[in-house]
Amino acid sequence: MPILAQDIVSLTTARAQLSELADQVKAGAEKIITRNGEASVALVDAHRLDYYHRLEQAQIHLLMLDEARRGLEDVTAGHTRDARDALAERKQARA
């Protein structure tokens, strides 16, 4: 959903029109609240925010699965080393 000019609101206007903005957001709009001409915060519907958080968690899970897949490919290809040796090397490199 693109952000339109009418979706950008100054903090002063947001304070004065919070109830109206909340109604617009509940109807599907998203608002960017600016402070001193810079984007500061967003006003979004609580259900949509929850959806965004679920999408973020799903993305994290997909990244973890991809890392696990790559790790298994490394093991299958024989690209492994003893963890104690790797930790000792790291410890030595720090010193």
Describe, in plain words, how this protein is organized in 3D:
By secondary structure, the chain is α+β, with helices and mostly antiparallel strands. About 60% of the residues lie in helices and about 15% in strands. It is built from 4 helices and 3 strands; from the N terminus they run βααββαα. The protein has helices at about 10-15, 20-25, 45-75, 85-95; strands at about 10, 30-35, 40-45. The protein has a 3-stranded mixed beta sheet with strand order 1-2-3. Strand 2 and strand 3 form a beta hairpin. The chain starts with 7 loop residues before the first strand and ends with a helix. The mean pLDDT is about 95.
The mean pLDDT is 94
What is the strand content? 5-15%
Indicate the structural class: alpha+beta
What sort of overall outline do the alpha carbons produce when their principal axes are compared?
elongated
Summarize the helix and strand pattern as letters.
Answer: EHHEEHH
Percent helix among the residues?
55-70%
Biggest pleated sheet: 3 strands, mixed
Low-pLDDT segments: none
Distance between the termini: 51 Å
The tally of strands reads 3
Strand order of the largest sheet: 1-2-3
* Count of runs of 4 or more consecutive helical residues: 4
Calculate Rg over CA atoms.
Answer: 24 Å
